[in-house]
Amino acid sequence: MGCCNKECGLLAGAVIGAVVAVLGGILIPVGDSIIQGTVEKEAVIENGTTAYDNWVATGAAVYRQFWFFDVQNPTDIWMNGSTPVVVQKGPYTYKTRYLPKENITAYPNNTISFLLPAGAIFEPSLSVGPEEDEIMSLNLGVAGAYTFIPKELHFILEGMIVLSKSSLFQRLTVKELLWGYTDPMLRRTLGIFYPYNGTDDGPYNVFTGKDDISKVNIIDRWMGMRNLPFWNDTYCGMINGTDASSFPPFVDRTKALFFFSPDICRSVSASYEETVNLKGIDLYRFTLLPSTMAAPNGVPPHANPDNQCYCIDPVVTKNCTMAGVLDVSSCREGAPIYISLPHFLHGSPSLTEAVSGLSPNEEEHKTYLDVEPTTGFTMRFAKRLQVNMMYGPSSIITVLKKVKDYTIFPLVWLNETAALDDATADMFKAELTARIELLETIQQAFLFGGIAVFLVCLIPYVMVKRNARNKSIA
Fold it and tell me: Domain residues of the chain, as ranges?
């Protein structure tokens, strides 16, 4: 009878352990379903959700750091045709994107529109000097006029340069170069980012994700357009992805993330590089591939035929074989601006050979997004790009007579960056990470605890049964 009680107890323990283990196994998909449902509900851009509150507000502080290329030999360049020598000077840091979204309007088709107001506040503590620091840089007026005026009319530009006492290079303050100054030759306000303060970007129209969470924050229209007219091509004109502030939840690291950047007037993709940790939160780091700015007619494997429609000027780009630069003049009201990665990272060697003092570095100059995979929120990013202008030879314009070839000259490179602050990180971990970890702990406790009880009871039960069988035989 005692033996039976012992056997029954062990058998009951094994059964209970098996039931608990099965329950733990069942909790895994159930728990995952609960997490998925909660995230999908809170990720919708709709009044009352977590995503909406974070979406409307400015969130983490966004900074733009600027590094200028200070020309060391301006006279030698135009008098003797010497190679420009530059020294990087910076950072000069401004707080941007500190204003919340404006003109927010929801539509019945599950989209929502808004404007992004622009503003810049100088941050002396994060800068190497004041805004009044002077930079010797390419003359924006001369370089711009050179691009616009045909060779047959270069004598007009020569007269304008002489009358205004202008030259190929000029000394201006950081503030003037960035935000605007009155050009003595053109008698109008010029600046690398003029106008900026008091302007806005958009309107954007994005999907809320209410009917399909896989579309949340994906851009439906920008400035009323679904396809950009700047490139005269349907493929290059596509607006793909989000604005990079967030992506649809449950990010798959095997798939590229697409985002649209108005700074370069095109959409780009970023691919998974590694998993990083920020304030105790695991994030997927996505970076731009070198093929993003590869030449359409470049030498394989450093070529990207898909970029053919981005090649506007085959003369400057050497029949579209020059990698690393994007002519955005068509979306900058004709301003002769070329965008690249800082120091011409991933660009053709001819770009860095034409200007002495450049040192492209993957770690310092690449663009990356650190995305939390469950929610799709971008919790840290560094968007880096360089603004360049072009000048070239002329048999009439005095300051360009010694120039041998077209030169894409670097003006400034910037790093727009932001990172999750401590308070938001703690809130995120408490509201999501901690709950997921607790649920996983409970799941594992049931699963492995049940298995342990099952084995602890089953093994003695088998031994007892075997001993009982041996005794009966004896």
Answer: 2-40+430-473, 61-98+120-197+227-420
